[in-house]
């Protein structure tokens, strides 16, 4: 059973105030890059793994998707997604991605945003997604980048010469990383980038694109804090084909 | 024209004394991992891009390859490879990988060890390799890992709490990195891991395996200095199929 930190009051309150939860997809700096990797959604049966407030589900329908199934472990998120959605072709369901079990060949596109770094058994998950997709279907997801997750003490440091660096260590040591983000004791699962890609390939996917997200110069000009994303990637974007 | 640092007397002298040049393939800690990704070489026409002293060329022939073409920019390395090889089916040639031009569909396997981080136009190179291979052929190479190459000041640091960390910065800033390794002013070309993989995919290769090399516990026990390779990867191993 996956850790359900999301329904803890402090986590949920903090999560609800994140820029990307208040402003939706456009509030996420990596969204333009993710969007450019999406297939044409027209007529597609979409599954969103870790749908949160349902922002992507609604986007998919606005862009022609035939139906969307949004899954999330959090009761509160699913309740909020349902409250914000007025579209009978979008269904939301509480589900543990560690035990994902979808009907075979029932989706034309699978999507996930920043959920898989909470998953312990990523190999099992990719096999489930592979089976749930029809042949030729695309799978696009974002995940916290392993460079961001690996360190025993994540957080930029300023060295004696005033240089801002990211103190990487423990990269090869896969497994849980406990951090205090919105709530105390949030457990994330560090995997090397190689392990993530090899799980996809092992399940039968063809890797199409791997992007270690960094902001554009225009984004840095508009939001100077984003400059630090050029020092070390925080978000990994992957596109694969079944 | 690629920088030919390799023929500078100080570089060549230092290079010749590297453990892996004195002891051959077995002197490279990542070799067991690389070897496990090699296809059956029986009867294969092999090209080795950046063949150095010819260690892999001779290994390939000892393992059944029909022929090997070893390419290197360095006259001194090619001279040494020729002097150490007594096998008319192994050919060595001085060649600049930036301008690689091989006959179409003339090889069954392409290999490269720690040469591609010197290459500026990796996209052009991968296209050339793709054309030179027959359909279904494997391409296995190692390259310095971008985490290792990116920093403006590479080298472990010990923080105030005594922790050894790798000061990552500039990861998204692709392009030359100048270091003093064996000789002053060695120019390497940093690319993100995503860029390297996308170049392969763009050329038409299917990525089969991505390994951010780390030592086994047995290797660390035998050579304790290798433990730091667990903190940040130095070597990336990629296997792809044409």
CATH fold naming of chain A: Rossmann fold
Averaged pLDDT of chain A: 94
CATH H-level name of chain A... which superfamily?
Vaccinia Virus protein VP39
If strands are numbered along the chain, what order do they take across the biggest sheet of chain A? 3-2-1-4-5-11-10
Q: Briefly, what CATH class of chain A? A: Alpha Beta
Q: How does the overall form of chain A come out from the CA principal axes? A: globular
Query: For the terminal residues of chain A, how far apart are their CA atoms?
Result: 27 Å
The assembly state of the depicted protein chains is homodimer
Q: Which pair of protein chains has the largest interface, and what are the residue counts? A: A-B, 36 and 36 residues
H/E order of the elements of chain A? HHHEHEHEEHEHEEEEHEHE
State the CATH architecture of chain A.
3-Layer(aba) Sandwich
Keywords:
homodimer; 242 residues; alpha/beta; Rossmann fold; 7-stranded mixed sheet; 9 helices; 11 strands; 29% strand; globular
Describe the protein in words.
The structure is a homodimer of 242-residue chains. The longest helix of chain A is centred in the middle third of the chain and has 11 residues, at 122-132. The first copy, chain A, has 242 residues and is α/β, with parallel strands linked by helices. In chain A, helix 6 links the parallel strand 4 and strand 5. Chain A has nine helices and eleven strands. The first copy, chain A, has a seven-stranded mixed beta sheet, with helices on both faces. In chain A, strands 6-7 form a two-stranded antiparallel ribbon. In chain A, helix 6 (122-132) runs parallel beside helix 8 (193-203). The first copy, chain A, has one domain (9-241): Rossmann fold, CATH 3.40.50. The model of chain A has no long low-confidence stretch (mean pLDDT 94). The first copy, chain A, is 27% helix and 29% strand. Chains A and B meet through strand 7, helix 8 and strand 10 of A and strand 7, helix 8 and strand 10 of B.
């Amino acid at each position: 059973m996956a850790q359900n930190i999301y329904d803890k009051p402090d986590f949920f309150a903090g999560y609800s105030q994140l820029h990307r939860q208040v402003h939706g997809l456009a509030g996420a700096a990596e969204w333009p890059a993710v969007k450019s990797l999406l297939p044409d959604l027209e007529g597609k049966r979409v599954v969103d793994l870790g749908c949160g407030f349902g922002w992507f589900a609604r986007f998919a329908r606005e862009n022609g998707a035939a139906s969307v199934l949004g899954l999330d472990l959090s009761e509160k998120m699913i309740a909020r997604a349902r409250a914000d959605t007025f579209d009978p072709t979008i269904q939301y369901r509480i589900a543990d991605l560690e035990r994902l079990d979808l009907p075979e060949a029932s989706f034309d596109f699978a999507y996930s945003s920043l959920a898989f770094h909470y998953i312990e058994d990523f190999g099992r998950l990719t096999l489930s997604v592979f089976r749930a997709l029809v042949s030729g279907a695309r799978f696009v997801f974002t995940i916290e980048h392993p460079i961001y997750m690996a360190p025993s003490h994540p957080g930029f440091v300023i060295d004696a010469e005033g240089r801002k660096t990211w103190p990487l260590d423990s990269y090869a040591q896969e497994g849980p990383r406990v951090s205090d983000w919105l709530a105390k004791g949030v457990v994330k699962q560090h995997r090397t980038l190689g392990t993530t890609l090899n799980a996809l390939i092992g399940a039968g996917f063809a890797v199409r694109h791997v992007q270690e997200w960094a902001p554009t110069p225009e984004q840095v000009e508009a939001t100077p804090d984003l400059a630090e994303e050029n020092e070390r990637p925080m978000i990994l974007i992957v596109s694969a084909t079944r």
